[in-house]
């Protein structure tokens, strides 16, 4: 299997690590830019441009593809994910005490590193519902990546995440998936479902984790009931290629698809990347209708709810788990709920246990 062979090659791990280092630094830049009155569009451009410029500095002696794997997204308060506006859209500015979810990713030679992180604008000490939902998502991610280990199953992770989130009196965002990833493939055949419905959990295909696998672990938690919907007020601007083949009939569609294939391959891209957004959207209609491109829709919860998100890319190695991406400290988050002793022990456990002498 290609993915098993890949992680036995030190050069592949180096590419993952290099992509992750760039993403981690980009996240720091974006976190610093999330201040009161900052434009979400400007912040997204900042994140994307930083990744692109840093990628230019590495692996230049070989013909290796490298680009954004997930465009910068800034989703605020009850907006769940994938909000990444265009220049032509009405500007939206951040406000003090907004809960901001940042998502981004990069790849080198088809090996992607992804991250998501949640902050509060103003960086003031946060308590109550905001602190609880952020702590719930963060602790659930830490428990998840320690439960994802060879021999365990995806269902075990689903249940563990649910347990942690419930301790903070929150709910998982129903139906969201974390995927095993492979080279040039963000959504491979194994996945972990965020779900609290027993029948839906049972219906999801159970799979065991194996050594040398790679996962993008993505945890989204809400103060609401977990049921979210596609936003009616925001356009979808992020897409990726599918495995579907179709002979496109419209010239604009063929031009768009050709550019996507050349520049982004199978990774996610934003319409911001095109010189003429209107022409790009013109070609988009047929591509979506024929399923050769798939949308990352903007999802929203009810207006008074708050959503938090944390994500990381992990490598399951013989010596333990390597956590590639991460955000800054959450020292200003002060939840009024404490994690149970059972899960606190899991969170504190090292990802790569020391070998006994």
Automatic annotation (TrEMBL):
Identify the Pfam families for this entry. Peptidase_M24
A cellular component term, taken from the record's GO annotations: nucleus
The cross-references to InterPro entries, in alphabetical order and at most eight, read: Creatinase/aminopeptidase-like (IPR036005), PA2G4/ARX1 (IPR047113), Pept_M24 (IPR000994), WH-like_DNA-bd_sf (IPR036388), WH_DNA-bd_sf (IPR036390)
* Superkingdom assignment: Eukaryota
Extract the coiled-coil ranges from the record: none
According to the record, the signal peptide region is none
Where do the Peptidase M24 domain residues begin and end? 16-183
Which CDD domains does the protein's record reference?
PA2G4-like
> What family classification does the UniProt entry report for this protein?
Belongs to the peptidase M24 family.
Question: Which PANTHER family would you find in this protein's record?
Answer: PROLIFERATION-ASSOCIATED PROTEIN 2G4, PROTEASE FAMILY M24 METHIONYL AMINOPEPTIDASE, AMINOPEPTIDASE P
* Protein name as it appears in the record: Peptidase M24, structural domain-containing protein
Species of origin: Rozella allomycis (strain CSF55)
